[in-house]
Task: structure prediction
Amino acid sequence: MAWANNTGSVKFEKRYISFGLKGSSDIIAIHPETGVFYGIECKTGSAVQNKHQKVFEKEVKRRNAIYWTIRTFEELKDMINE
Result:
């Protein structure tokens, strides 16, 4: 079970409305057999995590869940196969 986890803000009339948990990973997944939580952050080029993403990673790992930062689909497939 996996889904895209959109976060950000949108301007509505004269103000911005935020949505999603700031810093949370781009993809959320739950292993079908073990129930283990996966947070998967997708980056391109030389992009790096911002401070909110680093905090989210730390909190995920503190709970013995899995957090990956990936740059390509091939990298994701390799991590899944491990």
